[in-house]
Amino acid sequence: MNQMKEIRIDKVTLNFGAGKDHNLLNKGIKLLEIVSGVPPVQTTTDKRIPGWGLRPGLPIGCKVTLRGKKAEELLSRLIKAKDNIIPKSSFDNSGNISFGIHEYIDIPDAKYDPDIGIIGLQVSVTLKRPGFRIKNRSVKKSKIGKPHMITQDDAMNFLNEKFDVKQGE
Question: For the whole prediction, is pTM greater than 0.85?
Answer without folding.
Answer: yes
